[in-house]
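step=encode ok
step=design start
structure_in=
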């Protein structure tokens, strides 16, 4: 009898404790389930989603400047990021060998011209001898034989042919001289366009070998201050966020634009 009473009291106590605890837990759970909010002033603005990308900025056009002749670089007159004009001196190749070739070919040309004058003098003398022989022959056929007349005649023809050869030699010497002068001028590396030097691939004292392949010395970018190319790489998961380029149906890379608008284009391309 006593044991049953004790069990009943214990069960009653557990029911009371459970009822009190359930109410407390229910109140806590109810408070946690309530929605949280905060008040703020209504305003209008852009919702911006940032898309990070990597890439390089390159000029729209780049001109490679090479060398035609070989030799050591005597002096450099341009460096990275230098602004140059068309015809400006970029580098100087040692011109001593080419200047010597010009002097040699000039001497050969002078010799050929002197040879022309010598043959002209001999031709004139042969013509005078032929004219005097004809006068004597006209006065009396016995003064000069026919074989001597033939000698005077063919002597004139021979000197005329020699004169033609001498004149051709002069033209040949002039061609060689022009070639040497051109090689001498090629020792000065000039800028072909207006632009900015974006790369220099030589150093002072370096020797160039242009016989087999034209060496690349400088790279000049014209109009680099106005237009540039942006080669951008965007993650595949983020490319859909670039809505501006998508709606305009314009590729977001390999598209040239004024450099002043690159930043604004990039910002507008990232907004959605």
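sequence_out=
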């Amino acid at each position: 009898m006593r044991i049953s009473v004790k069990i009943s009291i214990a069960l009653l106590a557990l029911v009371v404790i459970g009822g009190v605890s359930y109410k407390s837990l229910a109140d806590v759970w109810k408070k946690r389930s309530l929605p949280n909010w905060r008040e703020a002033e209504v305003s209008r603005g852009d919702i911006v989603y940032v898309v990070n990308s990597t890439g390089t900025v390159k000029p729209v056009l780049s001109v490679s400047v090479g060398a035609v002749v070989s030799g050591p670089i005597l002096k450099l007159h341009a460096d990275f990021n230098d602004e140059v004009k068309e015809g400006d001196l970029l580098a100087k190749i040692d011109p001593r060998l080419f200047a010597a070739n010009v002097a040699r070919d000039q001497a050969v040309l002078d010799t050929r011209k002197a040879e022309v004058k010598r043959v002209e003098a001999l031709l004139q003398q042969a013509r005078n001898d032929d004219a005097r022989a004809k006068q004597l022959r006209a006065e009396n056929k016995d003064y000069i034989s026919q074989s001597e007349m033939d000698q005077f005649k063919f002597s004139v023809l021979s000197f005329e042919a020699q004169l033609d050869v001498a004149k051709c030699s002069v033209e040949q010497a002039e061609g060689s001289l022009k070639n040497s002068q051109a090689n001498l001028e090629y020792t000065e590396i000039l800028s072909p366009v207006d632009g900015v030097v974006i790369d220099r691939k030589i150093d002072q004292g370096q020797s160039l070998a242009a016989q087999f392949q034209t060496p690349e010395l400088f790279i000049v970018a014209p109009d680099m201050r106005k237009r540039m190319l942006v080669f951008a790489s965007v993650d595949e998961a983020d490319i859909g966020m670039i809505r501006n380029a998508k709606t305009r149906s314009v590729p977001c890379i390999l598209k040239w634009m004024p450099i002043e608008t690159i930043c604004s284009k990039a910002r507008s391309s990232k907004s959605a």
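step=design ok
step=annotate ok -> The chain has a mean pLDDT of 81.
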